[in-house]
Amino acid sequence: MIVVASANGGVGIPQAMAILRAGGSALDAVEAAVRVVEDNPDDHTVGYGGYPNVLGEVELDASVMEGTTRRAGAVGALRGYRHPVSVARRVMEALPHVLVVGDGAARVAAEMGMVQEELLTEPARATWRAGLEGTLDPSAPIAEWLPRMGRLATDPEHVSGTVNVIAQDRDGHLAVAVSTSGAAWKFPGRLGDSPVIGAGNYADDRYGAAACTGWGELSIRAGTARQVVEGLRRGLAVEAACTAALQELAGLGDIRPADVLMHVVAVDRGGRHCAATTRRGWQYVHQTDAMDAPCTGSRLVVELTGSEPTEMDLAR
Ligand code: ASP
User: Fold this and answer.
1) Ligand 1 atom closest to Cα of 217?
2) What is the pLDDT at residue 141?
3) What separation in Å is there between the alpha carbon of 23 and the centre of ligand 1?
4) Which of 59, 105, 281, 287 is the least buried, fewest Cβ under 10 Å from its Cβ?
5) Helices H, strands E: what count in the chain?
6) CB of 53 closer than 6 A to ligand 1?
7) Are strands 262-268 and 208-214 parallel, antiparallel or unpaired?
8) Could you say which residues of the chain have pLDDT below 50?
9) pLDDT confidence of residue 195
10) Which ligand 1 atom sits nearest the alpha carbon of residue 161?
11) Is the CB of residue 194 below 6 angstroms from any atom belonging to ligand 1?
């Protein structure tokens, strides 16, 4: 049994591991871990206390996927409810749909009995105001916003963050959950990769599971989480599968490889795990049932070269 998460998911790992040890499912474990992160007001990239969109509204995206059936559920641009991961799970289990956004997602949350609340905390509001000061007038036409938004939405201080959690349970089943407040100061209604199955997450018990954080528009375009699992299907080791999926982003013709900001976590069906990144200095956490506590490790750094690695490069 194993739980692997982006570094900010560490606070939820003990809960997930307790569920797995008690014989609970991977799906229960990943949901529980993500809920702890969504409750954390100090994490400004997920749930309550998350940074808002350009208008100062917190809009949350999340998804879950289980590897056994490849059932998935996701919500986007959910306002007023702090646990989008549980709403995503409800979409998966109760509706004949995969992705529900906006008012529809809020309706599911309300029907679940979730409490509606203001998610924008004072510290997040202050940073938002300071970030926009003198830069952007929300009442101006969109054409005037766009050149400025590019800069705001790639502000490295604020843009990065999402929680990824992958678990494998006693029966070998995999599940993945992802939750985020998305790119800070985003355009209202913008969805990143987190609620897009195959982009921000993917799980298939036959091969493995993966999830992403980083520049969501790029993982949507390249199908990055699915790419990792596809690499596992082709027989690559988990490190090589992560490397290949990140290298693939270097081929997006309009983005300089040096500008690609992407991080993946992955677990193969044998429970082997890897976390990789295109930038130095990023960490992740993992715990197996043989370990007393979660362990923080450095991610494998993948230098993007702009040319795709051959199968032979990846096998090295
Ligand atoms: N991937 C997230 C998004 O694009 C943000 C992040 O992980 O930094 O919404």
Assistant:
1) 4
2) 74
3) 32
4) 281
5) 11, 13
6) no
7) antiparallel
8) 154, 156
9) 98
10) 8
11) yes
Q: Please tell me the number of Cα atoms within 13 Å of 183 on its side-chain side.
A: 24
DSSP 299: P
Q: Say what the pLDDT of residue 145 is.
A: 65
Report the alpha-carbon distance of residue 103 to residue 78 in Å, rounded.
Answer: 7
Question: What are phi and psi for residue 104, nearest 5 degrees?
Answer: -65, -40
* Confidence at residue 130, expressed as pLDDT on a 0 to 100 scale: 79
Domains of the chain by range and CATH?
Answer: 2-315 (3.60.20.30)
C-alpha span between 201 and 184 (Å, rounded):
20
**Between β-strands 163-168 and 174-180, what pairing exists: parallel, antiparallel or unpaired?**
antiparallel
Which residue among 61, 101, 201, 213 has the greatest number of ligand 1 atoms within 8 angstroms of its CB, and so is best to mutate?
Answer: 213
What pTM was estimated for this model as a whole? 0.92
Say how many Å lie between the CA of residue 191 and the centre of ligand 1: 9
pLDDT at position 94, please?
97
d(CA 212, CA 53): 21
Give the pLDDT score at 156: 46
**Which residue from 160, 165, 217, 262 has its CB within 8 A of the most atoms of ligand 1, so it is best to mutate?**
160
What's the confidence (pLDDT) of residue 284? Answer: 97
Pull the structure tokens for residue 6. 């982006």
Retrieve residue 276's tokens: 């990789």
Among the listed residues 162, 224, 277, 278, the single catalytic one is 162
Could you tell me if the CB of 287 is within 6 A of ligand 1? no
